[in-house]
Amino acid sequence: MRILFLCTANSCRSILAEAIFNHLAPSGWRAFSAGSKPAGHVHPRSLALLEREGISTDGCHSKSWENLPVKPDIVITVCANADGETCPAYLRPALRAHWGVADPAHATGTDAEIDEAFRKAYRTLRARIEVFFDLPLETLMLDKTALKAELDKIPALVG
User: Fold this and answer.
1) Backbone angles phi and psi of 115, in degrees to 5
2) Of 18, 19, 35, 148, which has the maximum CB count within 10 A?
3) Mind telling me the catalytic residues?
4) What is the pLDDT of residue 81?
5) pTM, to two decimals
6) In terms of Cα–Cα distance, which of 45, 43, 47, 49 is closest to 57?
7) Distance between CA atoms of residues 33 and 1, nearest Å
8) Residue 65, C-beta contacts closer than 8 angstroms, at least 6 positions apart
C-alpha cells in the first residue's frame, strides 16, 4: 500500500509524516510526500528533528504532486490549504483523509519556542501514524468505507 502525505509546500509536515511512516511501516507499506506548490527545499529544522529521533532523512526532498513516482492508494492531507485544493485527476481514485497539523515553518518566537512547534508537529504526526498502524488494516483494506471512517477518526483521537 502506498500512502501520499500531501501539503502545500512539502517542506515540513508532509516530510515529517513520510519519514515517520516509513520508519514505522511494516513490510508492504510505503509512504511518500508531495506538495501542491513545493518550496523546493526541506526545512532544516525538520531534517534536524528527524535525525535527533533516529529517523533516516535519505531521500527527503520537496517535490510536486505532479511528479509522483507511483499512484497512491491513500492520500492524507496534513495542512488546511492542501485539504481544500483539487488534486490532480490521477489522484482521484485514492482514498482521502485530512489530518491537519499546525505548520511549524510559520512558528515565531525564540529558538526554543520554534523548536517546540516542530516537536509538537512531529509528536502529533507520529501519534496519528501509530494509531493508524494499530488499526486492523488487513480487514479494513477490504472495506474502503470503513477504512475511510477510521482514517477520519484519527485526528480526534490524537489531537
Assistant:
1) -60, -40
2) 19
3) 7, 79, 87
4) 58
5) 0.92
6) 47
7) 14
8) 4, 6, 34, 35, 36, 87, 88, 91
Cell digits of residue 87: 488534486
Q: Which residue has the cell 507511483?
A: 70
Grid cell for residue 138: 488487513
Write out residues in the chain with pLDDT < 50, as ranges. 89
Strand order across the 74-77 sheet: 30-35, 2-7, 74-77, 95-98
Torsion of CA 56, 41, 102, 85, to 10 degrees: -120
Where does residue 54 fall: left (phi above 0), alpha (psi -120 to 50 degrees), or beta otherwise?
left
* Interatomic CA distance for residues 74 and 81, integer angstroms: 18
Alpha-carbon distance values, 117 to 121, 125, 138, 148 (Å):
6, 12, 34, 28
Q: What is the pLDDT of residues 97-142, one digit of tens each?
A: 999 999 999 999 999 999 999 999 999 999 999 999 999 999 999 9
